[in-house]
Amino acid sequence: MPVTDVQHDLDALTLTITADFAAPVERVWEVYADPRQLERVWGPPGYPATFVDHDLVPGGRMNYFMTSPDGDKFYAYWDVATVDQPKSFTFKDGFAVDESFAANPEMPESTQVYEFAEVDGATRATFVATYADAASLQKVLDMGAVEGSTLAINQIDDLLAA
């Protein structure tokens, strides 16, 4: 399983997940750069993602939804801030109200930093989410963000091996 560490810090307002993949950095980057590959691993098993928009460039927007086993759809977006291919990218991650992908002001938004570094021919990925306040971080923790993110990230190994 690629996830090797998960830490949350209510004082620093962060959730940090570290994962190691047995693939070069460029191959791991491709997972995020290609919406069809990203759909195969974004979201926990049983909640497939569909990326409606995928523009991984500074100022770009990613709109997607996940579909539950019961057919319920959960909408979200990424507003891409920076891209340093294949080493890192940053974005605002938020929940959307519906298929319009307008931000849901009742749900937390986070700043995400995804970094990929070569370690002994493999890739160490560090995913850091920073929230505006402890209540927002606690809300996503209560929603199962650690479990869901870990399950999602652990799917990447199968994709990389395919």
From TrEMBL:
Transmembrane segments: none annotated. It holds the Pfam family AHSA1. Residues 22-160 form the Activator of Hsp90 ATPase homologue 1/2-like C-terminal domain. CDD domains: SRPBCC_CalC_Aha1-like (cd07814). Belongs to the AHA1 family. This is SRPBCC domain-containing protein. It comes from Nocardioides cavernae.
